[in-house]
Design a protein that fits this description.
Layout lengths: L5 E3 L6 E3 L9 H20 L7 H8 L3 H9 L13 E2 L7 E2 L6 H16 L3 E6 L6 E3 L7 H19 L8 H8 L3 H9 L13 E2 L6 E2 L6 H13 L1
Antiparallel strand pairs: 1-2, 3-4, 5-6, 7-8
Length: 234
Amino acid sequence: MDWDHISNCKECGKIFKRVGKDDIHCATCSMQFSKEHVSAQNFLNRHDQSDLTVKEMSLGTGIPEKRIVQMLKVGKLDIDRFPNLTYKCEMCNESEIQTGKLCMMCRSDLKTDYDIMLSSGQYLEDERCKECGRLLKIGEVAVCATCSRLSRNEYHVCQEFLNNPAYKYADVKEMSQVTGIPEKRLIDFMQRSKISVKNHPNLYYPCGMCGTPIQKDRLCDPCKIKLKWAVNEM
């Protein structure tokens, strides 16, 4: 079974089989988004007031503001008549924009920094660190040196914690509080078997399908079998 095509939906978190490499949502969420898009555009087509805001549109359609902003970012809505349908630039958090993630000024500043980095001959074009998103330097693979060093330090901190008998019955929340490493990061380490927690009975997280407590991978063994069968039937 090709597990590379199995992923968690970015919206609901459920396990689904990706058809294309860029698929990030399950079929249920994708269908819901399509319905919301149609509803949003129909609302705009019927609306007469040009001073409509995102908040007012959300109240009028029942669609969360976050989803409306997502539609605006990717240019899914015809908003030529609505200059007040805006949201904050993700970089400066000041400028109001109607499409994309960044305002023109921040895009310009980012491009300048990008060009300077490429011209130095030390960075790879369009190759970014999967952890922080920064350009990778020549010789770096997948993860930049800074994130790689941070991961090694975190592994060392985790190992010290796990070797301490006082924390034998600690759970993920306590481990996070003691080590300063976010719970999500700790669970990622456990899922990828970067740290061994078999001697710590309370260090677990829920199976991605049924919620059963597990200490490694994303699914419990029974759900792996069920998912393998379901995928083979697709």
